[in-house]
Amino acid sequence: xxxxxxxxxxxxxxxxxxxxxxxxxxxxxxxxxxxxxxxxxxxxxxxxxxxxxxxxxxxxxxxxxxxxxxxxxxxxxxxxxxxxxxxxxxxxxxxxxxxxxxxxxxxxxxxxxxxxxxxxxxxxxxxxxxxxxxxxxxxxxxxxxxxxxxxxxxxxxxxxxxxxxxxxxxxxxxxxxxxxxxxxxxxxxxxxxxxxxxxxxxxxxxxxxxxxxxxxxxxxxxxxxxxxxxxxxxxxxxxxxxxxxxxxxxxxxxxxxxxxxxxxxxxxxxxxxxxxxxxxxxxxxxxxxxxxxxxxxxxxxxxxxxxxxx
Length: 310
Prior knowledge:
- By secondary structure, this protein is mainly alpha-helical.
- It has a domain at 103-274: Orthogonal Bundle (MetI-like fold), CATH 1.10.3720.
- The chain contains twelve helices and no strands.
- The radius of gyration is 24 Å and the shape is globular.
């Protein structure tokens, strides 16, 4: 009796795909994926093993302030990377700060994608005056450096918010600032792809069948424009983390009570030349590792999805 063929699962199809083969052949991509997974897991699992919650003032004491790393003379257990001037454990602060930076980066990329994809699809599908108006807005934003847009938006929104809501809404303000300066790249890419796709036979056939324009854009055209978007989103994730760190370092990002990596670097920079180098150096290393891992994955994804390199 002939055995029935086993159904092919999604996992099997994924492991047989060219993308998986390319990933397994790239040592840099595998290293970056492993490093990024380690950084993300350790950051979000931090409450399970770190000695304190650095966001809780009740757990901070000045008696534990200014300890150096444990391998340096004067270091104390369990403060492996030392403490700052408030008695905050540096390792705990870095891991909690990494969570803030990662979440802000993910939220910024997600909302920028939503705005950029919608704008690009509408501009590319309808063309004409609508396309010109939307793309001119994008051109104006592109002519201004990203960091200046983020600083301007962050400063204006903070002034409009009541004083007691500024710290609570700091993360939302950062996301808004990064989104307003980051959606244009997605919109221009999708608009160019949509302008090409709308002239193809499958779109014209759908239009003849009176398929609603919204369904044509999101069900038929959008899937054919996602390859370059995935690459851009991966690279922009690292850029969003850097933008958030820059704004926090300049003092218009996350507050000291909810520090991100940029805030930790700003606070530690004040004591860099007083001998307490660990307050700044370790958050800088964490930020560098996080951004390098994301960028290495983005570079691999760009090459793996490029048909000219296959």
